[in-house]
User: Fold these one by one.
Assistant:
Number 1:
Amino acid sequence: MMHINKKPLIHSNDRPPATAVDTIVIHSIYAKDHADSLSLSACFNVLDTCQVSAHYLISRDGEIWNLVDEDKRAWHAGVSKMPFGDDCRENVNHFSIGIELICEENTDFSSEQYEALALLTSEILNRHPITNIVGHEHIAPGRKVDPGPRFDWPRYRALVEGGISAGRTVRFPL
Ligand SMILES: [Zn+2]
């Protein structure tokens, strides 16, 4: 069991009744114009000031922070729509878990972040009937670009798929 730190954020509410959590949304965040733009405290502050939230935030060195309980609706996706031909549901916040990784556009995600994200993902897969993992850019195209081209989807996908049981399928955007 990995260690998870807690830092409750207030911007969240209830999910619609009887909503199955079946989607994970990957984001990236940094504190633009802040001297220490990749620090945890600056990124907590960005979320709070913008009146948004995510369920988890992963620091550059792979620390995992839980910000909103998984049974609550965090405010990370905004105006959004699932990107699949057979799944165009809107309001992705209703049925998803949002994970923020601290990273800038011109910085690579760290190995520690991929490892922590894969571990966290496998625990979430044990708790919820997750069938989709998408990026913010895939559910809000033209409006959001995170986690962006530097996020290595094949690397993440290989880590996740190495840990899931045979017969279980999780759909990725690429
Ligand atoms: Zn985002």
Number 2:
Amino acid sequence: MRAVELNAPGHAPLTLWLRPLTGADEMALAGTGTAVAMTLLDRLAEGADHAGLTVSQIDRALAGIYDTLYGSRAECRVACEACGETYEFTLDLPQIIAEQDADRPGPPDADGAWTMEGVARVRAPKPADLVDDPDTLATRLTVEGGASAETVGAFLETAAPVLTLDLAACCPQCATSAQVRFDLASYLTRRLDSERPFLVREAHLIASRYGWSHGEIMALTRDDRRAYAGLIEAERARLSRRQTA
Ligand SMILES: [Zn+2]
């Protein structure tokens, strides 16, 4: 189990426990995007009551899952609109989270709301609050008083930061700048989705060598499955070298 802290340092601690990913989890994820990321979180935080989490806290949980699977770095690929060149840059997620936390206005009150510039009390959005219209969203998130949607939005961006980021990039070929959207939920699920062929191959290797059932293999954690598959591949390589010698 891995503990992921969902609140910023200095705020009331909120720890979510996540179990390791198994093949069954990977098989259950169909496609990519926010809904798939939520399914993943539901499965790994089994039994935890996380229905009341804010979007900001959910992104911290997803960052914890990402870190367990892939480490701290995320590679972004950009296709330059000016010259067509494709280039990459790297994000350091723990560093981004630390920067976000340093900018926060401090913890909310016991009811989860902040008093904003003395004119309104606002709370962080939960997934069910999200709507496209900024005025409707601001009204939903205002507990007391009132302020413009723009002011509420700007305050919550800092007070309850998310890991959907608009990043400035610059093409190394032609120096054209671009704004690139990074969305952790999409990024994480795309990466997992792209690894589906490995899951099938590893399951095939293990079933062929040990005769374990599909269910038994899918119940293995991802790390254990890969370790077994690695041993079988090494053994096969040794045998084939011996045969050709
Ligand atoms: Zn370019």
